[in-house]
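In response to reviewer comment 3 from the previous cycle, which asked for concrete evidence that the modeling workflow produces usable outputs, we include below a single protein chain processed end to end. The sequence was submitted unchanged, and the resulting structure tokens are shown without manual editing.
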Amino acid sequence: MVHCRLAAPWRVATCMFAAVLLTACAPSQPEAGPPRVGPAGDAAGQQAHAGGSMVVASTTDAVSFHPFKVSDTASRGYQNLVYAGGLIAHDPQSPENFIPWLAESWDISADRLTFTFHLRPDLRWSDGHPITSADFKWTYDQALKPENQYPYASNFEPIVAYEAPDPLTVVVTLREPSAVGLDNADVIGPLPKHVWENLDWSDAGLNPEIMAPTVVSGPFKLKEWQRDHHATFVANDLYFKGRPKLDSYVIQVVPSQAVAFEKLRAGEVDRAEFDPADYDRAKRLDNVTVYEWWPAAASWSYLGFNLRKPYLQDLTVRQAMAYAIDRHLIVDKIMYGLGGPIYSAYPTSCWCYNPDVPRYDYNPERARQLLAAAGWLPGPDGIVVKDGERLRLKMIYGPNTSKTRERIATVAQEEFRKIGVEVELQGLEWGTFLQVVHAPPFDWDMTVLGWTSTLDPHWMYQIWSEKNIPKLNAVGYVNKRVEDLFAEGAREFTLEQRRRSYQEIQRILADDLPYLFLTMSKGYTGINNRIGGVEVTPLGVGQNIEQWYVK
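The workflow returned the following structure tokens.
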């Protein structure tokens, strides 16, 4: 499970649903070969019959159905089932290109400042009310209000005006031309104005739609949600891409990936994300297909430093800790080869990837030298001491059901102990973890986490922006030069000019080490062979979920 931060947050990768992200990072094609399509004949046109239920295992539950209040992956997965998203989407086969979504077409003015979107005329909410530009405009106005604390409020900064001149037209005007102007304009996935306008925006006690939406636009409607147990969704007859062939889609919350795998193996669930240690076993199952892909927008893991802590504000200490971690060990022993090492903020799959950033390859002796240079010298038991204080850190990870996160944390703990840094580990339930990371008193020193990259490198600015502390920029990193380079990259219109900006960002981040960058992951999932219609693209699986069916 990873955090996902995107320009349009509804276009996200989740372990339960679609992987529809942002633009322009072409997928790498390593030696693993092309992605699997599925069981023999599955993509060749087996007749798809409506009906049946699909059950998915998940180790984390959602926090809320409010699209403008949360940013965690599990919640986004639930929300993407019930809300259709924004005006445009990325072509699953060619993610660098946009395709119509709730807008059937759009026009761009000659000065690249005004974007006019023409909505599909047949859009309907699940209660039959038309989806109109008024829904977009009303939702935009609410999310724009500072008091409503939208985590992605910085997305609105490029916008001068957001207008709804008639029911089928949305007009967005930007402050200046931008290479990501179309993404800048598509900032809202609408909520039903006729339902929400008389309800409280933030208080779930006063607004039942926050935790149990009744009027939706996505492929499914929520039937029942028992927290930490299961959520049941049923087909939305009025979904704009057509009623899903599945009658119902059930997310079953399980305590661990090991349990998820055993349920998948036994046929008790139809889909599960499982530990890399079970990858080879899963490939040998007769009843399961393991779909795999190298993502256009890679998921990557990191150790984040809490830069509010005085001893972690010392770059030399962070460099020492970076030298203490063996990324190749993590890839080989924890990820079982299903990934590769990274050294800065963009993975090798991005067109802006910089291979020449400072690298901190495994060198524990160098780590000990740096600690000594910073004044941290070994005490009687080997733990380093400075001014009578031991270097003792608290590392948290979440969710505590993730064996991969737990193993990364355990390896880090062992490696840091070798250089004289004592680390206490604490695994937390997902909702609790998010609260601890994002809210005072910030009682942690390091965290094991991950991001899913955006398809256009510009949008990763959100996790480095000072304005987004603490919700997105949880570590509290501040570097004005990095923010200026992101702005420059958006103002350029050739890839080569943009590449220079983003490659310099990577160099600075590798120098500054707000994160200890670890690994990028290959995408894979296990699905029971009784489920048909599954397609694999550079964006993963799930984009065509309305076409999935029980054979």
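Confidence is low (pLDDT under 50) at residues 1-7, 10-48. We consider this sufficient to address the reviewer's concern, and the full set will be provided in the supplementary archive.
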